[in-house]
Structure formats: structure tokens, C-alpha cells
Amino acid sequence: MASTDLSSILSASKDLTKHLLNSKPPDLPSVNLSLEQIEAQSRRLVSKHDSSGDVNRANYLLAQASVDGSALSQSIAHLNASTTFSSSSLQPLQDTDVSSFLRHSHEQNLISTIEHGRKETQDSFYRMLEDRTARDWEEKKKRLFEQLGASVPVASSLTTSTTSLAASTMGMSSSMMKKQVPVSAPLSLQMHSKMLAYDRTVVALNSARLGGTSYPIIHALTDAANDNNQIAFMFTVLVKITQEPPSLPPLEHASAHILNSPVFERKYAKAYLASPAPALSLRKQIATGARQALEEQYFSIIQRTVHSHPSEAQLGGDPSTANLVRAFCAVRFYRQGEWLSGLELVKGSPVWAQVFFLVRIGEVSEAFQVLMRFKDALDAREPGFIDAFRIWAESSERSLPRLIRDQLAGVYNAHMLQAQTTDPFKLALYKLIARLDVGRRSIPNVTTTTEDWLWMQFAMVDESSGDENDDSSLASLTKVLLAYGERHFEPATGSVGQKSGFWASVLLMCGQFERAVASLWDHDSGGSLQVEAVHLAVALAYHGLLRVSSKAEGSDVNILTLSPSATGTQPIPSLALHTLIWRYIRQFVKMDAKEGLQYVYILPLSADQPSPPGVGHEQLEAAWELVRRIIVMANGGPMWEELVGGVKGDGTRFPGVLPTHLPLLRLSPSPDSYPSTQSLSSSSSLRPTSLQTFDYKSQILLPTASSLLSNDRLPDAIKLYDLAGEYDTVVGCLAQALGNLVASGGTTLSFGAGGGTAWSAAGDQQDRAKELEKTAREILTVYERLGRGTGLGASGSSSGTNAGGKDRDACVKLLKILEAGERGRDGHVERALEILESTSLVPLDVNVASGKEGDVDVMKVTRKAEEFTQQHEALQRCLPVYLVMCMDALSGVASKIKSGVGVHGGEAQKRAAVIVLRKKSRALMVYAGLLKYRMSPEVYGYLARGDVEVAL
């Protein structure tokens, strides 16, 4: 390879030498040396050069970087590469050297183990990276489909399964809560029916808000979800937490005055949103509500179990709850004439089991009565327990004094915890009332189901200390449940039955309301639970139990945001409520904008959120933005006018759905937009006076009209400007639109033979032109009758772009130009010429001509040209159009006179008429010449040809 390179270099040098010899000056000597000679001479030259100075300078430079160059050079010079490896490692092992063989094998095993571990780690990393990439891509694809409004494939059947009682070791088996819901119709129809059922509750809620009354929204949502036990249970949990009554007394009731009615709206907002952690009283209420919901659920299970096994239950005629529990224990634990082993019998009855199940369903007083019936026997076995139970039952927080608690703890640790024959239900009762051994959360043969385990945890929650770091606090339990995660509470994807949403109920029990909504929305059930997610968010926002995200924290992809806590505890969840609502309503907002607005009215509920600063007003702005978006997306026509309101033929307005719901958006009607708003004022007076309201005109009407105008929806934009009372803006928009119509497409000029002119437009463009012209004439007629759009402000002075009615004058003149076009298209060129002369845009009157034939009063034409700069901008843009129309009209009239068609009188009259037309044609040419830089050369050429036709 080196020889090849040297040969090529040699040949190249020879070629270069030849080139230099051919081109060098005659006095330049040549060098004829081989490569070896050149190298030898180069070495001699180098040896003559003293390089010690360069070495010294290099060492000095390296010394500045703390590098000893001379020492390193000596080390490199004395380096012996032959001793790098030991001689023993390079020599073969002897057959009899067992120790060396073992050492070598050990070293090789270590090397192979390290290499195998490295390879496994690398493969695991790439595998995890690939899985994460695929998962992120699926998530992004799902979000993209949601943004585009595409439907997500769902299963062909909907199976709703709830967590059931599992088989116990004491003989009770079979599920008591599992319920299969068959699908009798296609899912799309079923989903539509479900959405309508929930939608009616939101409409009723907003109606109550307008009326200034409360509404039991959670009970209404529970009724709407009556075919899904798990969703109904989820709403039941929220009912217990919020303590919402099932109904309100009717207004006809004597004590049902509006001032005496309970207030549900934002009832818990101050306690929940004032600080990152809910207030102490609210935390107690959340834990109590979760426990009560689980107790109510278990009571229904007991009832169904007893009624489904009447022969084993032997219920009898006693209607008490204690007798019902006794029958349940018989069904569960009594087999073949004897009780199952493991139960401690007192006078032949499993008293501990009965007491526990009574406490399990919340009947503490009934449980105490059962204990009192067996008081003598129990005092002999467990002295002091009944008194401790009584104190625990009578306590509002279900707690015991420290002394009694320590006594029960001593008995629990000494005699019960490690015993093999202890009744598990007695163990559970000791653990429960004394809150013992909180870290050991399961009790064998007692917490056999998920619901039992959860009830035990919430029953042992103690918020009396107020310390969130306490092991028995709600915050500590929440950390444990979040660490377990959804997979411990939901069946795996692909198992029998899809996920039921039970994890959302667990999150509600913990007070993690935002996480509960997000878990339902992001559920792997084909979007079947997204409807419930939205309406759960509506109920939470109404009661003030939802923390919304700010713009800085929120995301366009994920609706849930986790912000770091200032105290270093669990992150603070917040929900992008406006994103959630928009993703839900956009699938039907085009077909039913009124129903979409009902959900937008929920956003202003969070306007009172204090932190982060400004997030409350951001919710108002988000609601207004969605309203504007819905108006723009809605199609025009009667349905659109029903949404925003409209104007009748006589100029009077009729309100739409949106103006009647302004109080829900924290908006107030503008006096100039809706002068007759007594009903609106009465509704808005029900709102708290501390809440600031904003102008409906400036926040909704004007921005939406501007957006419609930019989307080339002029009729809808004009209607909104008219509703806003911006009459001058309406006239200005009409002037611009008519100017565009005349100048660029609404009227296309095609010149026929013989000087005739045809005005034509084709297809949809002609229909739009006709509609615009009709709308403009109607609006100007009404405005003229009512004195609107005159360009005068409230004080009577001229203001704005329509000062002095300039826009209105431009509209009138542009409509005349369009009318002249119509007459010319019908062949009435004389009438077309008269209409064009009436606009006074072009000097066509006889006063511009002097006494001599063909002469033109240039001074008058010049003044007319100077006035042109004062004309409306739309009229200036249309200058080439109406000049050509005027010349065509003159040419058409002259052609008719010369041919004698439709002309009465003698030759003298014809000659006089032609002379007048020539004067007008010459005046038109002079006028065009003075404005020559405003038109193209083609227009000037056409005008010149027309002037020649008139003059011939």
C-alpha cells in the first residue's frame, strides 16, 4: 500500500515537473533528484537545525498546565513493553499444576460472569427502552386520535364487574356482588343513551344554579348510572363524603325558602383548596364517608345473602338488624348442625362474629346491645371489653382514652396476637376499637375481600392528632394505597371482564379526587368510562372538591398534573378541567351546541380557587374561549340564531340560549347589546355579590365576530356585531365586503361585441353575491329607519372609521354599482348609465363641458379627481371596475343612438345626444388620466378604445 502511494506521488511529481518545465521562465533552474535523495538532504537539513529551543518552549508550555514533560519523556524512553504481562500468564499450564488450573478457571468464571451480567443488563435496558418507546407511542397516538376527534375501537360488549366476595377458608364461597350486564344494543347506541341520561343531570344542575338553588347532582348521577353497580358505588362514596341529601324540600314548603335551603355549590372549596392538604375536618369527613359507603355496600350484600338462602338463614319474624346479622352468620358459618371451627361460641352463639358484622355495617348501637345480652359471660372471659366498647361507640371520633387503650393493647399483645385458637373476629374487634398494630393491615379470615380490607383501613384512620405523618392518618393510608397502585384493585387487562373502575372509588375514598377522574378518563376500557369521568369531575367541581391546573402547570396531552408540594410530602394533583370537558363535548358540539354549552358552564365554578395565583381567572378565560369556539364551529341558520340570538325583520332582537345563561359564565349583558334584559338581571342577582362579572359583549360577541370575519363568514359576523350594538362596525364590514365583491369576483365583466356589456357570475359565487347584496340592503333599510350606523356616537359627534356616515355612503354607492351591473346585464344600458351617474363618483354630468363642442371643463374634472382621495377605501379599490362600466355604458348608449334602435326624434336630437355622450367620454378619459397610477395599462387601453367607439 505504501509503495503504491509513493509511486503515485512520484508520477505526480514528474507530471508537475514537466508542467513547470514547460511553463517556467528560461532562467529558472530545475532540480533532478529522486525521493531517496530528497529525504537524505531533508534529514541533513534537520540535523543542522538546533531544536533544543523548541523542546524548552514545549516543556515551559506544559509546565503551566502542571505537566512534567521531561519526566514523562524519560519514563517513556525506559518503558519495557515485554514486561507488561507476567511471564506466567503467557506460558501454558502444566498438566500437573492443579492450583494454577483452578486459579485460571476461577478467573475465567469471573470474567464470563461479568460479561454475562453486562450483556443481560444491556439487553434489559434496550428491551425496557423499546417497551417504553412503544408505550409512549401508543399514548401519543391515542391523544392524537382524541385531538382529531377520531373514534377509538372498543369492545363489542360491555361487561361491568365489581369486586366480589372471594371464597373464605371458613366455608363461605361464591361471589355475592358479581353482576354481568349483557349488551342488548350496539355500543354506540348504548353510549349515546348513557350520555343523554347524564346530560339531563347537567342541564338540571345549571337550571338550579340559575335559579339560585342547590341541586343534588351526585344522587342524580347515581340514578343515571343505575345499570352499573361499580359506578353507582363510586357515586355513593362521593355522596357519603359530601353528605349530600337525596332531595331538597319543594319551594312550596313553608321552610323551603331560598335563604333556608342548604348550599351545595362550592361548599368544600375553602377547606379543600386553601392549602395543599385538606383541612382537618374535611379529612375526617372523607375517611368517615369512605367507611360509611363500604358499610352500606356490605349491608346490601348481607341482605341479598340472607334472602337467597332462606332455609339456612332461618330469619323468622324478627325485623331487627341484629337478627339479620345472626341469620347471615348462620348462612356463612353453620354447617351440618354445628358451627365451623375457629369461632368462639358464647352460650352457643358466635357472638364475636355477630358483633363484628354489626360494626362492619355501621350498626354500632345494635352491636352494643348484643354484647349487653351476653354481658355476664363476656365479662368473665374478657373483662372490661364491654365498657371499652361502649366508650368507643359513644365517642364522636370513635376513639378511646389512652389508659383504656393501653389495657386493651396489653390483652391483645399478651393473649390474643400469638394464640392459635383466638377467634379472628374478636381479634379484629380489639384491633379496631383500640387502633392496634396499624402497620399489620390484614387479618386472616376477616379481611377476605378487597372491600373488607379497605373498610378495616378506613375504620382505623385516626385524625385526632392532625399529624399527616402519623401511621393512622389518612395521608399515610393514601401513601400505602398509591404504592399498591391500580393493579392490586383492578383485574388485569385481557382477563374475564374489563376493568370496572374500582380503583377510582379507592382514590375517592382517599380524597384523591383529581386522580380518580384521571383514572376513569385514561381507562383501558375503550373509552367506556370517560363519560363517568367527565360527570364525576362536574360533581366534584360543584361541591368544591376539585383542584384545577393552571396554564403553567397544565399539559395539552395529560389531564392530570402532579405539582411538587412545598412541604415535601406527596405531590399535589390537579386536573385540566377545560381540556377534559372540551375532549368530551367536541364529539357532539357541532350537532348540538346547546348541550355542549351546558358543560362549559361548569368551568366558572372553579373561579374562586386561590392558588396558584390567577388560576381562577384562567378558568373563566378557558370557559369564554370554549364558548367562542362553539359559536364558530356551529353552523349558521336558525339553530345558530337560537344559540346566540338574532334580529327580526322589524329590527327587534330575540335572545338565544347563551344570553339567558350569562350568570353561569360570570358575564353581564351589555346595555347596548340587550336593552331588554329583565329576566337576565333577575337571574344574575342570585349570584354572590363578591364575584366579579365581566362584559358579555367584550368577552364573547366581539372576539367571536372577529374570528368569524377572519374565517370568511361575514353574515354570521355581521349578526354578532349587530347583537353587540356595534352598528358602525356592521356598516363598515358591509362596505368592505361589497367592495371586495365589486372589485374581485362577485361581478365578473365580459365585454360583448358591438359595445354591449354583460355582467356575469357563476355557481356558488353568484349565490353568495346575491345573499350579501340582499343582506346589505335589508340592514341598511332597517338602520335607516332606526337611525343606526350613522357614524355618530352617543353624544351626536362623529367618531371612528364611520365618521360622518362614510361607510354607509360607500355601501349605498357600491349597491348602486351592483344594480347598474344588473341593469347592464339585462340590456338596459341607459338605466345603468343613469345609476352610475347618480353615484357622483365619475364626472359624467353635462356641467363638465364648456360651450364648445367636445371641450371639457378640466378644472371641474381636476377637482373631482382630487376628491377621489377622500372617498372610502372600498370605493378606491373599485375604481377600474366602475370606470370600465361607465365607458361600456356610454359606448352602449352611443351604439344604440347611432343605429336608431329605441331612439325617438330627428337627426338633430340624435346628433345632440351623441355630442353629450362624447363630452362625457372625454371627461371620463381626462379623469382617468389624472388617476393613471391607480389602474393597470390594460384598463387605460380599454377606456381609450371605448372613447374612440363613442367618438366615431
Describe the protein's topology:
Layout: H1 2-23, H2 35-48, H3 52-64, H4 69-77, H5 98-148, H6 187-211, H7 217-224, H8 229-242, H9 269-273, H10 280-308, H11 310-313, H12 321-333, E1 334-335, E2 338-339, H13 351-360, H14 364-373, H15 375-381, H16 385-394, H17 402-416, H18 424-433, H19 450-459, H20 474-484, H21 502-509, H22 513-521, H23 530-543, E3 560-563, E4 572-575, H24 577-585, H25 593-600, H26 615-633, H27 638-644, E5 646-647, E6 653-654, H28 657-660, E7 667-668, H29 678-684, E8 694-695, H30 696-710, H31 714-723, H32 727-743, E9 748-751, E10 757-760, H33 763-786, H34 806-825, H35 829-838, H36 858-868, H37 873-877, H38 879-899, H39 907-930, H40 937-951
Parallel strand pairs: 7-8
Antiparallel strand pairs: 1-2, 3-4, 5-6, 9-10
Helix pairs in contact: 6-7, 6-23, 7-8, 8-10, 8-21, 10-12, 10-19, 12-13, 13-14, 13-18, 14-16, 17-18, 21-22, 22-23, 23-24, 24-25, 25-26, 26-30, 30-31, 31-32, 32-33, 32-34, 33-34, 34-35, 35-38, 36-39, 38-39, 38-40, 39-40
Strand content: under 5%
Strands of the widest sheet, in order across it, are 1-2
Find the count of extended strands (DSSP E, 2+ residues): 10
- What is the overall shape? flat
Number of helical segments with 4 or more residues: 40
Helix residue percentage: 55-70%
Q: Supply the helix-strand structural class.
A: mainly alpha
Task: Tell me the span between the first and last alpha carbons.
Answer: 95 Å
What summary fits the major beta sheet? 2 strands, antiparallel
- List segments where confidence is low: pLDDT < 50 over at least 5 consecutive residues: 150-187, 493-497, 675-689, 746-762
Report Rg. 46 Å
Mean pLDDT: 80
